[in-house]
UniProtKB/TrEMBL annotation:
This is Rhodanese domain-containing protein. Keywords: Signal. It comes from Cypionkella sinensis. The keyword Signal applies. Residues 1-17 form the signal peptide.
Length: 128
């Protein structure tokens, strides 16, 4: 299944360049840290309500790690951080086995998160 996560994004995205993981996911005591190079594509699309949504696809090299991490927590809250800032806490709907997930919420935050993810780095984010 490709539709894996739908979340409401938080309202701020400060920049942290102090060695924190670029994209960090966690639930309970489990963590998955993805470097910027793990992001293959980032797109802003329209969701089923015709609202902006963020589509994130990780590289094939990182898809197995993401699939393993999301194999168990269905229905549980997964915290998603970009550059050390909490941006979403969705309930995971299904395993992210294809390396593709979606986030919904405040359009301004979606666009800012897209800028960070496209930059693949926590410093000097264009359009942030």
């Amino acid at each position: 299944m490709t539709l894996a996560v739908i979340a409401t994004l938080a309202s701020s995205l400060p920049v942290f360049a102090d060695g924190k993981a670029f994209l960090h996911l966690e639930f309970d005591a489990r963590r998955l840290d993805l470097p910027g190079k793990a992001i293959e594509t980032v797109n802003i699309i329209k969701d089923f309500n015709n609202q902006d949504a963020l589509e994130v696809i990780v590289t094939p090299d990182w898809t197995p790690a993401l699939a393993t991490f999301t194999a168990d927590p269905q229905g549980r809250t997964v915290s998603i951080y970009i550059c050390g800032a909490l941006v979403a806490e969705p309930a995971l709907q299904s395993q992210i086995g294809q390396g593709r997930f979606f986030l919904t919420g405040d359009p301004a935050v979606i666009h800012k998160a897209a800028n960070y993810l496209r930059a693949r780095a926590c410093d000097a984010v264009p359009g942030s």
